[in-house]
Amino acid sequence: MQTEELSKWRSDTRAFWDTDSAFDAKYGRILLSPEMEAAPNEAALDAEWDRRTVEDVKMLLRGIPIAPEWTCVEIGCGIGRLLKPIALRCRKVIGIDISERMVGFAGDFLAAVDNAEVHLNDGTSLSMIADESVDWVYSHLAFQHITAYEVVDCYLAEIARVLKPGGYCRIQNWHEAPIPFVERVKNIARACLGREHYHGPRRWEWKPGRNVRFGGVTYHPKDWKRALADHGLRVVSLELGAGHDYWMWTTSRR
Ligand SMILES: C[S@@+](CC[C@H](N)C(=O)[O-])C[C@H]1O[C@@H](n2cnc3c(N)ncnc32)[C@H](O)[C@@H]1O
């Protein structure tokens, strides 16, 4: 993207994520509409939010040998839902987000967490982080919303730059491949039990004059592996359909 286009993409993306209230930043941007509607009060929303968070942290840590001396980075941290539990397991955790309002809400949410810091970024870079200083970069529920392949590519280059040799990267994004049968059955069972809403993939690419929406760019696993490899990130595991039919979880190492 040319500079002018990139700056339009950035302001459109910020406008989409700059939520008006802490309530919306916390629940509205994490829980699905049926879950929001089903909850009779904020305590019930909180319980659902906590349940989702426990599940998500489990997925996030799958295959990651997190250690007390580690420095970890989350791209697209929102209010810091995942930073908080990860901070308990490492020396320092750094959250990065494109939305000024999300970063503001994160400041409140993480006020008592001494080893967490949150930075506003330009939506494409980790410029506040030194080369080869990070043990683990992770991202959940953020790459699925990135609306330009170029932006994903910028982040992969930045992840490779900040990771120590051998450092870990774990990203959840959206894939374009058919869902493995077992995961499809699990997802349908979850939907029948009223536990999760059930969607198909929905790719959305930003272009000048086109709004930012909920969806983002998607990858065929083959292309995704190639994109990681192009930046020196070696894939250790790739799971399709775990958690949701359109999710792809990939762990790679520098
Ligand atoms: C659905 S929220 C998820 C927050 C957090 N990862 C969690 O799971 O609780 C998505 C977050 O990604 C951020 N985001 C979207 N695009 C981004 C980008 N290009 N760079 C940095 N943050 C981005 C949004 O501002 C928002 O806070």
Tags for this entry?
single chain, Rossmann fold, 7 strands, binds S-adenosylmethionine, 7-stranded mixed beta sheet, alpha/beta, 254 residues
Compute the number of strand runs.
Answer: 7
Morphology call: globular
Distinct small molecules bound, one entry per kind: S-adenosylmethionine
Give unreliable regions as ranges: none
CATH class, named: Alpha Beta
CATH fold description: Rossmann fold
Write a structural description:
This protein is an alpha/beta fold and 254 residues long. The protein has one domain (3-253): Vaccinia Virus protein VP39 (Rossmann fold, 3-Layer(aba) Sandwich), CATH 3.40.50. It has helices at residues 3-17, 22-28, 33-38, 42-61, 83-87, 100-109, 149-162, 181-192, 221-230; strands spanning 71-75, 92-97, 116-120, 134-139, 163-174, 234-240, 247-253. Strands 3-2-1-4-5-7-6 form a seven-stranded mixed beta sheet, with helices on both faces. Strand 6 (234-240) and strand 7 form a beta hairpin. S-adenosylmethionine binds next to helix 1 and strand 2.
What layout of secondary structure does this protein have?
Blueprint: H1 3-17, H2 22-28, H3 33-38, H4 42-61, E1 71-75, H5 83-87, E2 92-97, H6 100-109, E3 116-120, E4 134-139, H7 149-162, E5 163-174, H8 181-192, H9 221-230, E6 234-240, E7 247-253
Parallel strand pairs: 1-2, 1-4, 2-3, 4-5
Antiparallel strand pairs: 5-7, 6-7
Bound molecules: S-adenosylmethionine (SAM).
